[in-house]
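Lab notebook, bench 4. Still working through the backlog of constructs that have no structural model yet. Next entry is a single chain of 304 residues. Request: give me the structure tokens for it.
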Amino acid sequence: METVAADYVPRGVRFFYIYKALAHPETNGYIQPFTLEERLLHVQEAKRTLGSDIEWICDNMDNDLKQALGGAPNSEFIIDPAGKVIRARGWSNAADLRLDLENLIGKVDPPTTIADLNFKPSPPNRSVQRGIVPRVRVGGTMRAVQVVPRPSDEPYYVKLRAEVDDAFLADGLGMAYLGFHLDPLHHVHWNNLADPLQFRIQCPPGITLGPLRGRGPEVQVEADADPREFLVGVEWDATILPADRLASSPVVIEVDYYACHDELGWCKPVRQQYELRLVMDRNGGSVRGRGKIGGGGSSRFRRR
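Model written out:
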């Protein structure tokens, strides 16, 4: 979720966490934000759950800082007052960082321990049941593709995550995962006394998904926070839609759902639309613990 950075100064060191795109969305229930405001909410949540007073730097939604620092998920840097990177490490290592700082500014006596930092961590807030609806099981590796929310008067209480499998990446014919995940930072849950989530798909020429409609399960408890997940077939015909037009020819997914606030008690129907672009999302991260799912990899599709 974050990268540790150290800013070297002549008489000491200032430490920062850097918030970037989530490397492993769904860890502890958190999912990729759609807006900078939501990223800043993640920073506030990280401060609360970690209990740390270390300052945070938040990357922008174009992930410029992440790319400038090499794109690694858990890298570590020491930067001098002039902004020059004097140590860079692809994976954070506390012991190596201490040695670096000892060489640069000398040893401290006694050395700082984790207990000295007086962390006061808090667990993530959970007010409704999870683990009620079985998770979708997928075979092989799936990789995140780009999802862009269309303008809406309401916050996106539900975030769509979309992935495609290796068969589609290789031949243009395979399966796609569509997961509608409640964003815990908006403090909402599913109202299972109302109609389940429903979605409709509109495809551009050259792209076929099926089925074009879906409906969430009927759940026997009044409220829960489990994702609503679907597997659909997906086919790409490059003779109709060339590869260089994939990003500009999105699949449109419209969704209807009821959202209820955990504390405030309101409950309302919401209709929103996402644009699904069948190109790799290099900042989408990889989900851990939902079958065999990976992330990253080549962004090139082979043409059918």
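Notes after review: The longest helix spans residues 36-50. DSSP finds four helices and 16 strands in the chain. Flag for follow-up if needed.
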